[in-house]
């Protein structure tokens, strides 16, 4: 069973859509588990204070190292990977999602305000991870992205395991175009090769389409693909 632990100031964000559909069924089958930890529960003062002003000045607040450390230490799982969702972090991609899917437990720390006290990152061996080059109001949205992408990779979660191999990024390319009935719609026809029944031709057509789309839309991925 794969477990996600989410450390957040706003536990009401969860479980939401993660408890429905395919993920809800997988949750009921104990294929994965979600544990939501409210960081405020680790605060010891009567106001449940989790943040303070930064040394050196600044316009924002920081999550305090002592409070977050207490929350992490109380709920830690031996050998698990701890991730702080941060725009400064390593870029999250399909390769990293596969890596996380092989872990037994992953903890995701959702930042707020201007971030966290830097000392917590090094003392608790926390890896910073970013889902893109933009800023969110909190890490909860980013945690949904990571959990969603990982759950799809767990054996038994998706109905069609083969479909995962055909998706964008799985072979370093964007996915090829796909079509369904009706065969002709608004004077646009399905490509003849897909109607041929020749699986070898279809395979080569799909690969050529993926390569062409990737080359135009994602030159960065195309360069990596060519090197491999």
Detailed description of the structure:
The chain is α/β, with parallel strands linked by helices. It has 2 domains: 2-151, 3-Layer(aba) Sandwich (Alpha/beta knot), CATH 3.40.1280; 168-227, Orthogonal Bundle (Trp Operon Repressor, Chain A). The chain is built from 7 helices and 9 strands; from the N terminus they run βαβββαβαβαβαββαα. The strands form 3 sheets. The protein has a 5-stranded parallel sheet with strand order 2-1-6-5-7, sandwiched between helices. Strand 5, helix 3 and strand 6 (105-110) form a beta-alpha-beta unit. Helix 3 crosses helix 5 (140-151) and helix 6 (199-217) crosses helix 7 (219-227). The longest helix has 19 residues, at 199-217. The radius of gyration is 22 Å and the shape is elongated. The two termini are 33 Å apart. The model has no long low-confidence stretch (mean pLDDT 93).
Produce a short descriptive summary.
This protein has 7 helices and 9 strands, in the order E-H-E-E-E-H-E-H-E-H-E-H-E-E-H-H.
Chain-wise SSE layout:
Elements lengths: L1 E7 L12 H8 L3 E7 L12 E2 L9 E2 L1 H11 L5 E11 L2 H8 L3 E6 L7 H6 L3 E4 L9 H12 L32 E2 L2 E2 L9 H19 L1 H9 L1
Parallel strand pairs: 1-2, 1-6, 5-6, 5-7
Antiparallel strand pairs: 3-4, 8-9
Helix pairs in contact: 3-5, 6-7
Mean pLDDT: 93
DSSP E strands, number: 9
- Unreliable runs: none
Radius of gyration from the CA trace? 22 Å
Give the termini distance in whole angstroms: 33 Å
Number of domains: 2
Order of helices and strands: EHEEEHEHEHEHEEHH
